[in-house]
Specification:
The protein is of the alpha+beta class. The protein has two domains: about 140 residues, Protein-Tyrosine Phosphatase, Chain A; about 160 residues, no CATH class. The chain is about 25% helix and about 20% strand. The chain contains seven helices and 14 strands. A four-stranded parallel sheet has the order 1-4-2-3. A hairpin with a 6-residue loop joins strand 13 and strand 14. Helix 2 packs across helix 3 and helix 3 runs parallel beside helix 5. The chain is elongated and about 80 Å long. It holds the Pfam family DSPc.
Length: about 325
C-alpha cells in the first residue's frame, strides 16, 4: 500500500477526501487529528476516532481563508504537540489544504510563501493554491503570521477592501457600517505634509492617509529623450483613504459624489466607489480624491513651514481646474 503524502520533516500529511478511506495507511502514519477544509456533506464515520476540525471553505479566489489561519495553525500544532500526526485535506488535496499547511510552515519556521509551497510540493506535487489564496498567504506573511488576524490593521484594511469590491459587484456603494474611516483606526503617524483647504485653511488630510500612485511612463523607448508631460497627464488629484470628516457624505449610500470642506463647505474633491481615472491615466478603485487646485500642500518636516502650491496656480497652465 502506498504511503500517505507526508510533508518532509513534519508530522503533517496532506491529501484529498478519499485519503480518509485508507484506514490502514492512516493507522500506520499514526494520524490522530484530521483537519477538513471544504464545504461538503461529510460522513461522521470517516472521522472516528480522530480529533476532527472542519473549516467550511470553497476553492474560489474570493473565499476568505485568511481569517481561519490562526485556528488551523493552532490545530496542527496541537496535533504535533500531542505526539501524533495530522492529516490536512480538502476535496483534491491541491489548494485549500495546501494553503493551510503553507500558513503553518510560515508561522512555525518564518519562511516565505514560495519557500513553504516548494516544501509542500516535495510531498504532493499537485499542490497549487488558487491566486486568491496565494495573495492571502502573502498578506499573512506581511502581518508576521499573528495569532489574531482580526485585530491586525493590515487585515482590517484588506477586509474593508473586500467589502467594497463585493458591494460594487452588486452595483451598490458599501453599507455605511462597512466603511472604514482610517483616521479612526490608525494611530497617529508622522506626516511629511498636510493638505489644507485653500479657502479656509482647514486641514483635510495628512500624507500617511494618501494612496500613492504613479503616472504611466510617457515614453517606453529608453533610447529616445523623454517627452515632457502634457497638462492632462499630470496628476490633478490626491487619492486617499476615507476620513471621518467625510462621513456625512460617504454614508449616504451614493456611488459617487462631491466632497465639501467641513468648515467652509467649499467643493474640495469627489469620490467614486466604482473608481475613476486620474488625469495621469491611472485608474484608482475605489477613488476618494482631493483636487490639487482646491488644496494646498503644507510641509511639516521643513524647518520653516512651506506651502507648496500645485501647478494650477501658474498663470500659463491651468492644470486640474474644472476637474470637479
Amino acid at each position: 500500500m502506498a504511503l500517505l503524502d507526508r510533508v518532509p520533516g513534519e508530522n503533517i500529511f496532506i491529501g484529498g477526501i478519499f485519503t480518509l478511506r485508507r484506514r490502514e495507511a492512516l493507522k500506520q502514519a499514526n494520524i490522530t487529528h484530521v483537519l477538513s477544509v471544504l464545504r461538503l456533506p461529510l460522513d461522521p464515520h470517516l472521522f472516528r476516532p480522530f480529533t476532527h476540525k472542519v473549516v467550511e471553505a470553497d476553492d474560489v479566489e474570493d473565499e476568505n481563508l485568511l481569517e481561519h489561519f490562526p485556528a488551523t495553525c493552532a490545530f496542527i500544532q496541537d496535533a504535533v504537540d500531542s505526539g501524533g500526526a495530522v492529516l490536512v485535506h480538502c476535496a483534491m488535496g491541491k489548494s485549500r489544504s495546501a494553503s493551510c499547511v503553507i500558513a503553518y510552515l510560515m508561522q512555525k519556521h518564518g519562511v516565505t510563501v514560495e519557500q513553504a509551497l516548494c516544501h509542500v510540493r516535495q510531498a504532493r506535487r499537485i499542490c497549487e493554491p488558487n491566486e486568491g489564496f496565494m495573495k492571502q498567504l502573502e498578506l499573512w506573511g506581511q502581518m508576521n503570521t499573528p495569532e489574531n488576524v482580526e485585530e491586525t490593521p493590515a487585515y482590517q484594511r484588506w477586509a474593508y477592501q473586500r467589502e467594497v469590491e463585493l458591494s460594487l459587484a452588486c452595483g451598490q456603494a458599501p453599507e455605511a457600517d462597512k466603511i472604514r474611516f482610517e483616521d479612526e483606526h490608525a494611530a497617529d503617524r508622522p506626516a511629511d505634509f498636510e493638505l489644507r483647504c485653500r479657502k479656509c485653511r482647514r486641514m483635510l488630510a495628512t500624507s500617511p492617509y494618501l494612496i500613492p500612485h504613479k503616472a504611466p511612463p510617457l515614453n517606453k523607448d529608453q533610447s529616445k529623450p523623454s517627452v515632457p508631460a502634457k497638462p492632462s497627464q499630470i496628476c490633478a488629484h490626491y487619492f486617499l483613504d476615507p476620513l471621518s470628516w467625510m462621513r456625512p457624505e460617504l454614508e449616504q449610500g451614493k456611488l459617487e459624489g462631491r466632497l465639501e470642506c467641513p468648515k467652509c463647505h467649499t467643493n474640495v474633491g469627489k469620490y467614486a466607489w466604482q473608481g475613476m481615472q486620474c488625469s495621469c491615466s491611472e485608474w484608482i478603485v475605489p477613488a476618494i480624491s482631493l483636487s490639487k487646485s482646491r488644496t494646498d500642500e503644507v510641509r511639516t518636516t521643513a524647518s520653516v513651514t512651506e506651502i507648496r502650491r500645485p501647478p494650477a496656480t501658474s498663470k500659463n497652465v491651468g492644470i486640474g481646474l474644472g476637474n470637479l
